[in-house]
Write a structure and sequence with these properties.
Number of domains: 1
Keywords: Membrane, Transmembrane, Transmembrane helix
Order of helices and strands: HH
Shape: rod-shaped
Number of strands: 0
Largest sheet: none
Radius of gyration: 18 Å
Transmembrane segments: 29-48
Oligomer: single chain
Helix content: over 70%
Strand content: under 5%
Length: 51
């Protein structure tokens, strides 16, 4: 949301649109990585708790 406001302030729309698409791709990749790490931690905690 913060980056979207910053992109709206820039005078060149194509650059902001390209930057926003790249940022969304990177954020979704980071979101998937964080989700995988969280799932791995939860599964590891459950298996450790079983022992």
């Amino acid at each position: 949301m913060f980056f979207r406001c910053v992109g709206d302030d820039t005078p060149s729309p194509p650059f902001s649109a390209e930057f926003e698409s790249a940022l969304s791709k990177r954020s979704t990749l980071l979101f998937y990585i964080i989700n995988l790490i969280l799932i791995a931690l939860i599964i590891g905690y459950l298996f450790y708790d079983v022992k």
